[in-house]
Amino acid sequence: MARGPKLSIRNGRLIDPASGTDQEADLHIGEGRILAVGAAPAGFQPDRTLDARGLIVCPGFVDLSARLREPGHEQKATIASETRAAAAAGITTLCCPPDTVPVIDTPAVAQLVRQIAERHGYAQVLPAGAVTQGLEGCQITEMAALKAAGCPVLSQADRPIRNSQVLRRALEYAATFGLTLFLQPQDADLGEGGCAHEGRIATRLGLPGIPEAAETVAVARALALAEQTGARIHFRGLSTARGAEMLAEAKARGILASADVALHQLFLTEDELDGFDSDCHVIPPFRTLADRDALRAAVAEGVIEALCSDHQPHDADAKEAPFPETAPGISALETLLPLTLCLVAEGVLDLPNAIARLTTGPAEILGHPPGRDLGCIRPGRPADVCVFDPLESWVPSRETLLSHGENSPFLGVALRGRVRWTLLGGRTVFER
Amino acid sequence: MSAPDPQLDEQGELKHFLTIEGLGRPLLTKILDQAESFLGIAQQAVKKVPLCRGKVVANLFFETSTRTRTTFELAAKRLSADVLNLNIATSATTKGETLLDTLRNLEAMYVDMFVVRHATSGAAHFIAAQAAPHVSVINAGDGRHSHPTQGMLDMFTIRRHKGDFTRLCVAIVGDVLHSRVARSEIAALRTLGAPEIRIIGPRTLIPAQAESLGVRIYHDLREGVRDADVVIMLRLQRERMTGALLPSAHEYYQLFGLTEERLSTAKPDAIVMHPGPINRGVEMDSAVADGARSVILEQVSNGIAIRMAVIAICLGAQNRRGQKTQGEGGGMDG
Fold first, then answer.
1. Does one domain contain both A103 and A17?
2. CA B260 vs CA B27, B150, B225, B268, B290: distances in Å
3. Fewest CB within 10 A of the end CB: N or C in chain B?
4. How far apart are CA B303 and CA B300, in angstroms?
5. CB-based contact B96 A200, cutoff 8 Å
6. C-beta atoms of A205 and B213 within 8 A
7. Is A344 within the bounds of a domain?
8. A367 interface with B at CB cutoff 8 Å
9. Is the pLDDT at B288 greater than 50, yes or no?
10. Of B122, B209, B210, which is closest to A323 when you measure between CB atoms?
C-alpha cells in the first residue's frame, strides 16, 4: 500500500450520503485513508492543506458503465486516457463493460485491464466479466474465476441473450457466487436494425425504429426470470417510462432488481435526431419527453438508484457516416457531474440525493468489492474524494475534454460544476 | 429545430435539395414553375439549353436505379452540363469510408454537383454536410427518408391535371413504412396546401404515429380512395414478404391492389399515379396501370423537367454566390 501524503481539506461543505452528512466540515487524510472528519487527530501535521471554501467535498463518484476501449480499440481511447478523464470528472471507481477485444470472459483479460489501470493510477477500474463466452449468448463463462480475478459483476454489454434458457441458467449460476447480472434491456429481435425511438421523429426521418416494447419485453423477461431464480439483476440503462414503472412494481414485490440511467437520457429526447446529428445516436435511443420526465421521477423516487455516464468514446470515423451507419454512444465522463448538477438546478433532486445517485447508489449495486468501501467518507476507509465547485461555469470542447472521445452533443454547451481536486486512495489524481 | 436549414444559402436560395421538409410554398412553386418552362424543350428539335454549360454533375448512385439515374442524366445534359455516372456497389463493412473517400476524390475533380442515391436514411444530409462549400448536393433517394425530386415531379403532375392543391384529397396506398417517396409527397402536399392526405395499408406497413405526419390512416382501400382526386400507389418490394410484414403478394393484392372496381369510389376524374417500376398484379391491375386515369408515363417525362428545374436553380444560385464573392475580390479560381 502506497503511503500517501497527509492532507487536510478545510472549510468545504462535506456531503456524504452514506452517513447522512451535509455540513461544513474539515477532512483529514493520511496513509491513503480518511483519518478524521471535523477536528484533526491530535498532533496531525498535514503536508498540504486544500482550501475548499465555497466548494463541495464528497466521496469520489462511482460510474457503473464506462468504455475504456482497451484492449482492442485503442484508436478510440485507452485505459490511460479515459481514467485520466474520469479523474478530471471526479470519478474514482468505474466499471467497464466486457465488450473489449478480446472480450473480458477470462480471468487473464480481467487482470490485464486492472493491471493497466493500476499502473496509470488515475481511477480504480472494475471490469465487468462477460456473462457468456465471447458475449455470444450461448455458453456461460467461468464466473467464479472471473469473480476471483476482480470482476464484481457480470455483464453482456450491449449484446442481448436471445435464448431465455441460457439467461435463466446464467442468472442461477451467477447467483451461486453472489454475482449480479448487468443487463442492457433490449429485445434482440424487436430492436434489430433500429437506430432511433420508434415514434414521431423516426417516422418523419425514415429511420429504422426501436419500439418501446424492445425494452419492456426484455425487462419483463428478465424480471420473470429473476423472480423464478431469486437471482439479482441490474438494468443497465433504462430509457422508457414503462420500463421504470415495471421495475418499481417488481421491487415492491420483492424481486432483487435495480437500475441505472445514462445522464443524457434525462436531458435529450427523440427531437434531437432532427438533422441526423450522429452525436445523438445512442442505444437505447432517446425517447419521448414523457419518457424523459418519467425517468427523472424514477431517479427522484429512488426507483432508479444510480446515475451513470454510459461513456462510449469514439474516433471521428465512427461518427462520420450516414446516421444509421454510425457507432452509437456518447463520450460522457466529463459531463457526468455538470449534468447531475443540472438536475439539481431543475429541481429533480436535492444536492445530497444527487450525490447519492453517483456514490452510494452505484456502490450498493456493485456490492462493495472486497477491501474497499466505495462511495462513502468514513474514518479508516480509503480516501476517494471529490472536491468540486458547483457554480463554476465551463464549456465542454475539444480543448477542455481530456477523453479521447470528442463525440458529445454537449460540446459547446455552457455547463455548471467543475471538479477542483480528485483524490484516489489519498493521492491527488486531478487538480486544477 | 432552430438551426438554419442546411439546404438554403445565406440568401435563402436553394443550395442543396435534400428534403422537401422545411422548404416554403414559394420555393416549391418556383420549382414547379421552372419545370413548366422546361417542359417545352423536350418537344424541340434541339433538346438543349445552355444554362449549365461548363458545370460538372456527378451521379453518385450507391443503390441501383434506372429511371431516376437516366432522368437525372438527361436533365443535366439538356442543361448542357457535363455528367459523370458512378454506380458504386456498397460493401456492408466499409460503406461510411467508401462514401467519404469517394466524395473527396470527386471533389478533387472539380465536380459542381452531386446527385446522390443511397440505401441509408440521412445519407444525403451527411454528404451535404461533408461536401466542399461550393458543391451542391441533390438527394435522389436516401433510405426510407426522402426522395424530393420524385415528390416534386408528382406535385408537378398533379398540378398539371388538377391546377390547385387547396381543395384536393390525395390517397397514398401501400408500403408507407419503407417509402421515401411517400414521405416526400406528404411533405410537399402539406406545404402546397392539400387539405386531405390519406395513407392506406395494413398496420405492418404504416409507420408508428403516422398521424403526426398530418395524414389520415385507412386500412380499407375502398374507404380510403372514396372521393379522392388523386390515388398514388407505392411500390411494394419483394422482400416485404419475408420478416412477417405481409403473408403473401396474393393476399396483398386481394386487399390493397388497385383495380377499376375498387377505384370506382374515387372521384370520376381521379388520376392514378405510381413512382415505378410497377409490380403488375401486386400493387395494381394492368387495366388500371394502362387505363385512361393512369398518368404514370407522364410522371416519367415530368421527372426530366423537374430535375432540370432543381439542377438549374441550385447551380444558378451557385453562380450568383460565385459572382458575389468575385465581386468582393475574394474569389478564388479552381
1. no
2. 36, 25, 12, 11, 11
3. C
4. 5
5. no
6. no
7. yes
8. no
9. yes
10. B122
Does residue B243 register a pLDDT over 90? Answer: no
Show the cell assigned to B37. 418552362
What is the rounded average pLDDT of the residues B192-196? 98
A window 382-421, beta carbon within 8 A of B = none
Q: Is A38 left (phi over 0), alpha (psi -120 to 50) or beta?
A: left
Is residue B334, in this structure, part of any structural domain at all?
A: no
Looking at the complex, report in whole angstroms how far the Cα of residue A80 sits from the nearest Cα belonging to chain B. 28
Q: Residue B100 class from Cβ within 10 Å (0-12 exposed, 13-18 middle, 19+ buried)?
A: middle
Distance of CA A374 to the CA centre of its chain: 14
- Taking the CA of residue B260 and the nearest CA in chain A, the distance in Å comes to 31
Based on the fold, state whether residues B55 and B121 are members of the same structural domain. yes
Distance to chain A for B93, nearest Cα, Å: 10
When pLDDT is cut at 50, 70 and 90, the band that residue B321 belongs to is: confident
Which residue among the candidates A158, A260, A310, A384 is catalytic per the annotation? A310
B153 shares a domain with B142: no
Helix axes A212-229, A241-252, angle to 10 degrees: 10
CA of residue A171 relative to chain centroid, distance: 22
Please give the tally of structural domains in chain B: 2
- The parts of chain A modelled with pLDDT lower than 70 are 1-3, 368-372
Count of CB contacts below 8 A, A vs B? 84
Q: With an 8 Å Cβ cutoff, are B210 and A203 in contact? A: yes
| Cross-strand pairs, A306 | A260
ipTM: 0.91
Provide the pLDDT for residue A329.
98
Q: Is the pLDDT of residue B330 over 50?
A: no
Residue B251: give its domain's CATH number. Answer: 3.40.50.1370
Indicate if A39 and A129 belong to the same structural domain. Answer: no
Mutate to test the interface with B, among A190, A197, A205 (most CBs of B within 10 A): A205
In this prediction, residue B40 carries a pLDDT of 84
Please tell me whether residues B47 and B95 are part of one structural domain: yes
B316 to chain A, closest Cα gap in Å: 25
Which A positions 245-274 lie with beta carbon below 8 A of chain B?
271, 274
Contact B144 A206 (CB under 8 A): yes
Range of the domain at A409: 7-57+381-431
Which structural domain range is residue B128 located in? Answer: 25-147+300-327
In chain A, how many domains are there?
2
Sign of CA dihedral B170, B174, B179, B181: negative
pLDDT at res. A71: 97
Provide the pLDDT confidence category of residue B329 given band limits of 50, 70 and 90.
Answer: very low
**A373 a catalytic residue:** no
Cβ of A203 within 8 Å of Cβ of B143? The answer is no
- Helix (H) or strand (E) holding B239, with range, is none
CA pair distance A320, A334, nearest whole angstrom: 22
